[in-house]
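Batch job 17 of 40 flagged for manual review because the log was empty.
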Amino acid sequence: MFHWLKRIQESTDSADEIMRYFGQMLEDGRHIFDLATGALLGGTDVESVRGDIWGTDKRINSNERRIRRRIMTHLTAFGVEGVSGHLAMMSIVSDAERIGDYAKNIFDLGALGGDVPLEFRNDLIEMRDRISRMLAKARNIYDTEDEESARIFGQEADVVCRRCDEQIAAIIASDGPGGAAATGALTYRYFKRVTAHSANVITSVLVPVDQLGYWDEDEGNA
């Protein structure tokens, strides 16, 4: 059992509702990521997914606000009971919301007609698929409350983020066309941020409240 989640469940009757909203945020994060990367890397028509992307992002934001309101209502009514769990949830809902924001950044690259260097395209597609699977795992880890899977997730996220950094450095060092190089570097950067925010969410079960949100800022993060 996730210890901080257990404290929420013991302290408020709205815990199931909070976790349902949060699960929807994680699911929507993967959905918007898949749509956005399809527009940039998969040949999906930009205008055919624009409405879905913006509508999904609005739902993510709405669920974040719902969770925050319920937490604040509980803290106002009951004081410090379960406060560490609520603080953890407040932190990770921000990470879940940022996944959608970075996915929109990826979509914007495609909407602007951006393209990635050909020598990096296959790697980006493979990484896109890997990150999408990780986002699906993130939802499943919360459903199963599996702490060992959370540790494995953090290790995989570390590999992906380091790979993104390596590829950004390689693009900067290349002599490719400026526009394609910039698009490629930004795509890797946004991939890294999506992965890092998902890792912040999942590894929240492994670190104390004061360390939440800093997973990718430590060389020993995994």
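Reviewer: the log was empty due to a logging misconfiguration, but the result itself is present. Helices lie at 3-11, 15-41, 46-78, 83-111, 118-144, 147-173, 178-202. Unflagging and moving on to job 18.
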